[in-house]
Amino acid sequence: MAFQSPHHVPHCCCCGSPISWLSDEPGSDRPTEQAVGPDSPPVLGGQPTIGADPATGDATPEPDGGTRLLTPIPNPVCEGCATAATTPDGSSIDPPSATDLPSATDSPSATDPSSTSDSPAEPPATPPASGPNPVVVDGVTCWRIGTDETWQLARDALGCESAAEFLRRHTDADGRPLRWFGIDHHGSPRQVRIEPDTVGDITAFCEHVADGTAIRIETTAGARSIDVPVVDVRRAADDRSAHAAPQVSALTAESAPRRLTISPSAIETISIPPQPTVSAPEPDASPQQLDRYGQLASAAPGVIDTAGLAAVARTADPQTQTTALRIVASVLAATPTPGVTAVESLVACLDDGRLSRLYALRSLAHIAAVQPAVVADAVDAVIDTLPADSRLVATAATRLLGHVADHDPGAVVDAIPAFGSLLAPTPTRARRQALATVGLVAKNHPDAVRPLVPQLCSLLETDDTAYRITTTAALGRVTAAYPAAATPAVPTLLAQLTADSSELRANTVGILGDIAAEYPTDIAPYTDELAGLLSDSDPTVRSNTAGAFARIAAVRPRHVKPFVDALVDLLDDSWTRSRVHACWALGRCDAAAAADALAERRHTDPKESVRQRAAWALDRIT
């Protein structure tokens, strides 16, 4: 789960709405000023006015006699949520008032506007002297901070027993608020800091953030400090005594990562810091250093400095090349765009050992997924990796070519023979990807795919429905341009007409209809097998079947006449194409029994194409 940077306009820690008066942008020492005085209305969402004595505290006087805090309170809650707050037993509470605010006229800064204090800010406020505290907002505990008349709500992250404890535990030693909540990618508040007691607390916290997010561990007094963020936090594998206390293991986010083990009792807090950017090791780094950096890239690719990817990919040391390419592949799997600068280096690795070739192909495939045009020039080199002696290499290569074909099918036309050597009735991931790419190419370049038709027909013998659907889609794009190409496969195609998949039935009868366009006599003997599809539950199946009957009726009307009733029923079909095809078929087989139904279509059908074809059919019949 991704969280916003700590440097932003803070959001309500109950609902996630922005609180405009707060700002913790870098370089901003104090929140946006919004005064609340005796003559102004109460503003729950505004900067809180408190009853501190400016002469002794850090509150700053306002022109209207109120005072405002130098620092915001921890975990602020917006006006809307504060208005909805209740006592723990569900009773309503009075909203804050803007009356009877303390005067700031005795403050030194009231008479000397230029006076400032360099001392650290004190805790921002004290709890009201009376009234309910804590209060509840949508099931979460909050504390009223300020005065009885004017207060601001703050969300409790630790289950404190008093407002004083809340302020102490939610601020640092100088009284500055700690960040306990962040806003996730859904706009909802999520806790980004905990004080864990057990390994379970730690692992549960880490499960709520995105994989690879770096966290900061602050250790207790006396424990060895951890001065860099860590990733891959998990329960440590323990080969000690069964009675030993469990520990957690983490990988440091640095160029030479270390695997640390620490006991929960030595951890004060765990939090999500601004995410680090870790540079690659120096070019003369040892294989062991590069391997550890590779572990970091696998666990947390988002923290790797993408600016150095091209240099990492260019490593010439054969001992470290595979590790370097694995690092690049791990990072590009999460963030492909930075790999654009490394394309040339990656292509150069396609002639190297199997593992180097695999990681180079995976990296190029990640890039092709977002910027296929950048990788298009590498197609010839990728084709040379097929047929691969490694299933993983074939999978990466076909995935890459599929991304390029989706952008520009013509760019991978030369890969068709290589795909032919790869395709077989037993589906694998590489074969599925190759078959899908063949279908993409066939759409605009059916001539390039035509030599594969016999092989494509053989794929229909598999039991895998999805594989057969993709096969018939590719075949259909070829037979639309070359109807004769699939005539030897008619018996195999007929066997698909009873498939449970409507998509497979539609594709198959569409191919048979394509064949019937040029060779209707080859399909005419099978009208009995086709007839049941005229009333299929799928509209595409009905339309394609009616089209096949229309083509058969042009030269073999006697094969169509037994099914006039079913074709008449299609005149009321919801699909326009089905009605048009039915008119063609009925006219061509001189179906006098359809005259009344055709006349109704001629005068009442909402589509002009149907009305025109019904009129044509009536002219043929009469």
UniProtKB/TrEMBL annotation:
SUPFAM superfamilies: ARM repeat. It comes from Halonotius roseus. Residues 23-135, 264-289 are annotated as: Disordered. This is HEAT repeat domain-containing protein. InterPro entries: ARM-like, ARM-type_fold. Signal peptide: none annotated. Residues 121-131 have a biased composition (Pro residues). Residues 102-120 have a biased composition (Low complexity). It comes from the Archaea.
